[in-house]
Design brief:
The protein is an all-beta fold. The chain is 0% helix and 41% strand. The chain has a single domain, classed as RNA polymerase II/Efflux pump adaptor protein, barrel-sandwich hybrid domain (OB fold (Dihydrolipoamide Acetyltransferase, E2P)), CATH 2.40.50. A four-stranded antiparallel β-sheet has the order 1-3-6-5, with no helix packed on it. A four-stranded mixed β-sheet has the order 2-7-8-4, with no helix packed on it. Strand 7 and strand 8 form a beta hairpin. It starts with 21 loop residues before the first strand and ends with a strand.
């Protein structure tokens, strides 16, 4: 009866590709309608005028123009006020 003794199991052998998240077009760059400006998980950046958020929180341009980043205060569910980046197309 030839056999191999039991080897240990490895726990750290999963590897998944990156999701390619982040800012795709920065402030001052030209953008066309429907183009992706920011890919994000959750709403870390908000959509302002001329931009809209899709189902997976990706921010797209709603019209042709130039990308503009600014900050604004947002009230959380707990009542706390925090600053968040706002992406708009002007």
């Amino acid at each position: 009866m030839s056999h191999v003794k039991a080897g240990g199991t490895s726990k750290n052998n999963h590897d998944s590709p990156g999701q390619r998240l982040g800012v795709k077009l920065f402030g001052g760059e030209k953008v066309k309608t429907g183009q992706v400006i920011v890919r994000q998980v959750g709403q870390t950046k908000r959509a302002g005028a001329g931009a809209f958020v899709s189902r997976n929180y990706t921010i797209h341009a709603a019209k042709d123009g130039v990308v503009k980043f600014s900050t604004r205060r947002v009230r959380l569910f707990s009542g706390k006020s925090v600053s968040r980046s706002e992406v708009s197309v002007v």
